[in-house]
UniProtKB/TrEMBL annotation:
Example GO biological process: intracellular zinc ion homeostasis
Transmembrane segments: 12-35, 47-64, 84-106, 118-139, 151-173, 179-199
Cation efflux protein transmembrane domain location: 15-214
Organism from which the protein derives: Eubacterium ventriosum
Gene Ontology cellular component terms for the protein in this record: plasma membrane
Main location class: membrane
Source superkingdom: Bacteria
One Pfam family named in its UniProt record: Cation_efflux
Protein name in the entry: Cation diffusion facilitator family transporter
Any GO MF annotation of the entry: zinc efflux antiporter activity
Family affiliation: Belongs to the cation diffusion facilitator (CDF) transporter (TC 2.A.4) family.
Alphabetical list of SUPFAM superfamilies matching this protein: Cation efflux protein transmembrane domain-like
Keyword Calcium: no
Membrane topology: Multi-pass membrane protein
Length: 297
């Protein structure tokens, strides 16, 4: 187990969990006090994020255990599965929030105290920025899939609270204007816009983690990057690349390099050196990497 990585990830997740618990409590209470659908949208999203973050704490120590014959992929696929479940649930929550707010709009909308919501959201935005900067600083040397998903959600909170603040500032200016009849529709409209903003990432992550669970090869950009390194490292030896088999699941990456000998001679020590070179060149680009050199028959 890489103790430094484990300690970093554990510290970040604990801090993120503490922040999420605090903010979720405030958001749920504020949504009832302020009577705002937008605040409730944010609060429900964070509540489900909190519930789905808890299993990660149980999983993290197992992700640093070595692979074995019984578990050839370790626990990395469980990580992909948990992240997949997390984003599926969040996507369902977001779609449900959109449909609920459309219903409110169709029934004439409702009015909230824009000043109170503005003060609350602006204060929350500042707190989210501080939390994001702290987590981003702690993850500067190491950022796993779980950490990235948490950083993304804090980034979402920053953008959503900032957008909500601007929207309700606009409502204040509309109070004595000729188009003040649209005010009852602002809160639910903003809630729908925030929810639509949240839709993209869950869809992207669902597709990505589904591919990892069924052991599809990674994106073409990653394949090209690995292929370039492999070709460079084997060019100094009497071998040529025949086939590249890359599997990513969770934070682990397996690379099987099938090579052909140019003179029908295979040297084990050459394979060992090529393996070391490839691993060294890619170790900073992937979290946990395993490289095997295989003779193509």
């Amino acid at each position: 187990m890489d103790q430094q990585k484990y300690k970093t990830e554990n510290k970040i997740l604990r801090l993120s969990l503490g922040g999420t618990i605090t903010f979720t409590i405030f958001e749920i209470i504020a949504s009832f006090v302020l009577g705002s659908k937008t605040v409730m949208t944010d609060g429900i999203f964070d509540l489900f994020d909190l519930l789905l973050l808890l299993p990660m704490f149980i999983l993290v120590p197992f992700l640093y255990k070595p692979v074995s014959e019984k578990k050839p992929y370790g626990f990395s696929q469980i990580e992909s599965l948990l992240v997949l479940v997390k984003y599926i649930v969040l996507l369902i929550v977001v779609i449900n929030m959109i449909t609920n707010n459309i219903t409110v709009l169709l029934h004439g909308g409702h009015t909230v105290n824009a000043t109170n919501v503005l003060i609350y959201e602006a204060s929350l935005c500042v707190c989210c920025i501080i939390m994001y900067l702290v987590l981003h600083y702690l993850s500067r040397n190491y950022s796993s899939m779980i950490i990235k998903s948490e950083l993304y959600l804090w980034k979402v909170d920053i953008v959503s609270t900032l957008g909500i603040s601007v929207a309700f500032l606009f409502q204040i200016f509309l109070t004595h204007s000729p188009i003040n009849f649209i005010i009852p529709y602002i809160d639910s409209s903003v809630a729908i816009i925030v929810a639509l903003f949240l839709v993209k990432e869950p869809i992207v992550q669902i597709i990505k983690n589904l591919k990892e669970l069924v052991l599809f090869s990674p994106d073409q950009q990653i394949m090209d990057e690995i292929r370039e390194v492999v070709n460079k490292d084997i060019s100094n030896y009497e071998y040529s690349l025949d086939f590249l088999d890359v599997t990513q699941t969770g934070r682990k990456t397996w690379i099987e390099v099938y090579v052909k000998s140019k003179n029908d001679t295979i040297k084990i020590k050459d394979f060992k050196k090529i393996q070391e070179h490839i691993t060294k060149d890619l170790i900073d680009k992937f979290d946990q990497i395993y490289v095997e050199i295989v003779p193509a028959l």
